[in-house]
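Sample intake sheet
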Amino acid sequence: MRVLIAPDKFKGSLTATEVACCVKKALLAYQPMLETTLRPVADGGEGTAEVLTTATNGKLWTVRVNDPLFRPVNATYGISGDGETAFVEMAQASGLNLLKSEERNPLLATTFGTGELIKDAILRGVREVVLCIGGSATTDAGMGMAAALGYEFLDKKNAPLHPVGQSMRYVNRIRRASLDIDLRSVRFRVACDVENPLFGPNGAASIYGPQKGATTKMVKELDKGLQTIANVLKRDFGIDEADKPGSGAAGGLGYGARVFLKATFQNGFDLVSDMLDMAGEIGRTDLIITGEGSLDMQTLEGKVIAGLARLAKSHQVPVIAFCGRLALNQGQLQQVGLQEAIPITPVSMALSEAMIQAPVLLDLATHEWAINRLGQYDKK
């Protein structure tokens, strides 16, 4: 019997790789002859770089870059084993998680550190960059990222502007001042599930600014700035990408990736799935075991598990999932495409304790399920 173990992370408790290894260990303790394949997965957000680096036998690199407020921070990205592709998560350098709640102010925040990560990868010789743009603390239209890669933003007096959110409204000219790296020789792909435009009532500032610390007044200033940058690029270069789906992602970094990197966009899970050849793996398996921290309404909206179930359906391969918390009923599980969902947390256990005990709870739940249920999925 061939089992594909393809979980997402249990956020705050276990990485996707740790979940996969735990499930494998518990299954083999019950059935040592089981044929297992581990393919930890992600949805383009947190943990994606590690998943793709591990899957391609690559290496993680940690470099010193600028955080959203231009303070030094250690950030990690991955390079595939063949040295061709870098996997960069913007949250490592420009993420909201790097700021205390009282520090959150997108007028002062920058994506400069994300640009530094991209530059470091290019200088190491990669030919492709996969950029994951979730969890940003910024609303700068990628101005900071572009500045780190050699672009200069000038005001009406041709004075250079500091690449932060509040500078956008003063941009009058954009030029490539430094040419020490050749962006044209690198392919850029963006993992993005957001479809918002750059500015306007559904734009980056209006929809996502408040969660990054923006007041109503700040939102208006940021939205004006986003529109200003778009107008300058349209006026001087004929670039009109502001209304494209995803341009408003990550405080407009989606837009910045389009115009400064000529990036293409892809749904996060689909991008990861393609790189891991999940369709091929599913075609060679009898059962898929997946999992994530919480099975809830977001699962119905297309996270990792729904994506796996969609692929599995075309091959008629059953999918079961382990989770820390189960908030879906049987009808909803069938809607996702799951045969079973097994919560690992005892009803009486507090969430904080469950997160600490996650490895033990997952081991116990997997072993118990294997004893009682695994056999019915064996086609032999």
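Comment: The two ends are 8 Å apart (CA to CA). The chain has 15 helices and 13 strands.
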